[in-house]
Design goal:
Shape of chain B: extended
Strand content of chain A: under 5%
CATH topology of chain A: Helix Hairpins
Helix content of chain A: over 70%
CATH class of the largest domain in chain B: Mainly Alpha
Order of helices and strands of chain A: HHHH
Number of domains of chain B: 2
Shape of chain A: elongated
CATH class of chain A: Mainly Alpha
CATH topology of the largest domain in chain B: Four Helix Bundle (Hemerythrin (Met), subunit A)
CATH superfamily of the largest domain in chain B: NADH-ubiquinone/plastoquinone oxidoreductase chain 6, subunit NuoJ
Oligomer: heterodimer
Number of domains of chain A: 1
Order of helices and strands of chain B: HHHHHHH
CATH architecture of the largest domain in chain B: Up-down Bundle
Amino acid sequence: MNSLAQLLQGSLQGYILVALLLFVIGLATVLTRRSVLVQFMGVELMLNAANVALLAFARHWGGDVQATVFYLFIIAVAACEAAVGLALVVGLFRHRQTTDSDRADALKL
Amino acid sequence: MFLIFALITLFGALALNFQRNLVVAGLCLVLTFLGVSGLFLLLGNPVAAALQVIVYSGAIVVLVLFVIMLLNAHEEERPAFAHPIQRWGSILVALVLAAGAIRVALASKFLATASSPALAGPMNLERVGIELFNNHLVAFEAVGLLLLAAMVGAVALVKRDL
């Protein structure tokens, strides 16, 4: 089968497939795990899936340089998000002595 | 090569999902990010691959592991109460989404026929820099400001008595 060989060697289809599956695995991690740290890792996975799709489309559709600049901005925002998110986790742990999202279900103690 | 990096990426992500030990889960995250950076290399984009390794597997994962060890949260806590409906519901949603994604990606005519334009050599920092500082200078400065704001915000959130 010709298209299958192309898929395995990295056609656009292959990259988009990997990106979609990565996104779904990240979503499953956020939904099924309870530790907020692991949920945070799942969010990072979803963000990376979007990056893979962006750069794959840029390579196969044109606009390579713009996509790389865009990727630079995405990475900067992701770094901000990581810093603030982890600070929130540390703050949550200070107040509740837990990183379990089930045990932190109220805004006020 | 594509197959190897794709399998590394997906294996790392799946291992992260099933890993109980949080530190090992963080290392699975590194594996995933390295696989993704390999995919970027295969796309002819070494700039993005280098950024991926430096920022994600370098900075962000180190930050996550640092917080895990700081909070001494190596193991996931016992569940406070079981909620089977949410659990199986979310597994079902994920499976349906995965099946739909595979179907859509394989059936799409656009994806199958998209031809790759001729590559003007691999991406290099010179082209990125020219594009960045000619057309996106304001956004670049705004991102610098955003990073500063995030840094101040993180310190303010963690500091005990401000």
